[in-house]
Predict the structure.
Amino acid sequence: MDRNSLIGLLLIGAVLIGFSIYNTSNLPDPEKTENSKKDKNIEVIDENPKSTIVPAGYIVKEDSIGNAILDTAGNPIYTDTLTGKDTVFTVKIDPTTTVDTLSAGTDSVVTPTKDMSADLDKRYGILASKAVEADPTKVEYFTIENEKLKVQISSKGGKVAQVDLKEYKSYQDFSEGNETAMTFTDDKGTKQALFFTMNGIEYSTSKFYFEKVKHTEKELVLRLTSGSNNYIEYAYILGDNNYDIDYTIRVNGFDKMDKSSVALYNDMKIRTSEKSLEQERRMSTVFFKYNEDSYDYIWENQEKVLKLEQKTEWVAFKKNYFSTFIMAEDGFEGEGSYIETTKLTDPDYVIECSSLLYLGLSDSKTEKHIKWFFGPNDYQLLASYDKEMEDVINYGWGLFRWVNIYLIQPLFNLLSNMGMSIGIAIFVITLLIKLLLSPVSFKMYVSSAKMRILKPKIDEINAKYPNKEDQMKKQMEVMQLQRESGANMFSGCIPMLLQMPILIAAFRFFPSTIALRQQKFLWAEDLSTYDQIASWTGDSFITTIYGNHVSLFTLLMAGTTLFYTWYNSSNVTQPQQPGMPNMKVMMYIFPVMMIFWFNSYSSGLSYYYFISTLMSILIMAGIKRFFVDEAKLQAKMEALQAESGKKDSKKKSKFQERLEMMQKMQQEKQKQNKKK
């Protein structure tokens, strides 16, 4: 392998190492929960948890969106409405000494008393009768669905409680042969509320029950009412055969409500659905797009609260293959709005994403029309919305993204639409790209062959100038030899650089393309994740640095790269300077390291690199066998060198003159250093 190929491989290696470091998922911090808001000054009635009956005058202590605050043992904290003291009840209190209760199984429910009703009236005013605290058992669930989505909506807060994507399965269900639809988010991990201020009191709709007004297969209308003319209405409508929920918020009456304070809060713990939770987490975050700007996002693997500064067109909670977008044509207000990401430790969930979006309502504008998308990160599908939603798909940046969008993806779509299996499509794409780059490969081989022919003479020059102070002379003589022979040490770099964008673009394309998801090929059951021919359990040093499985496609990729390196290594010149690394050793380290880097990556990606390197070997062998006669090439180079020697040796190029000037300056500097 000549210096050009070596430089190219080292550049590719450096980029891949950089991408690996960039994508490395740090161990997640402990899950942030509402327990961080607990009051440390709490009285615990008993240490033994049992079914709880709560005496009159106590209410559940809640956070800003209506969720109960718990102590370290997971028990709800209650506040005495008279004294303000916080208490945890963990034993069953004698009901004859407190209030009447209603029990169901092991659960106990507070029956409202006159004191509690008065307290609800004081805190919630005209909405007191709809408070969840008045009857926690009243919650109902309603289902709407179309060909793509099944959506469950809760009467508690009117929230979207669960969303199932009917055409997709989780990896677990796929591997077990189950036909269960994939759940994007569930009731346990979902919070949704409308915040507003009325009569100086801050309200959250999560604390109140909504009532059904209309319910059909694809439509649900819920209302939070107070009297006949005051209501907040949620209308959820599913379209035909799409992934959209048309979500309309209407405020009628409530003259004392500050309409400008109305904000929509969403918090979702997105359920895991893939084989590799680590891979899901390193590709999950929150994206957003301002109305007059391009998209932006919180970096993956980062916990952050980001304030939105402008009118915002959409916000997306994204994981590797699926996303939810909430968007409005007239946008959401920037001032006061924010997005947030939180790492999780629960293996059932990938990431927790939150947003608070001000709706921009007023006394004259009391409706907000929102489109809520739940679906796959399919490039063509997202691009059809014409809102730059497709930019959430990580196809890389700059030139690499263009290569994916305008070269690899069109080829991939064309072949898959022809009915080819994904594995065969990847093979054909690789073949077409290699044929497209065959002139580049030919030029690289010729350059490599010339350097291989000159290697004995270059070795002689190296031996002629062993001293450090003669380095400039050595370089000049080597360059003169190359110029006279028609060789150029840099002529192979440009072809290598032309291939690099495709190699790097593929690094982003295959792990991000949903078309590979749950597609089988040969021994790989799912090309979107790693294949495994062996696996083990338990923690060990090997597991830490390699993983708990063996990917055969990764081994094949590393093996062909190692063979390609050996095949082209005959003309590598060893460095003469002391302390310089052995180039041949460095060349062989890279393929070995690939075994560790790619073991948990997409098997489709490893398969592509394996096929690509194998084809490179075959193309090089074909060029050597049928197109380039090295004996004739050597004779041609010697003829050029002889012809060059007959020319006026006194005539020097400007470049040679500059080199000689640099040599004299270097020699002068060395003399001065010796005098010191």
Q: What stands out?
A: The first helix runs from residue 3 to 23. The chain has three domains: 34-95, 136-392, 402-644.
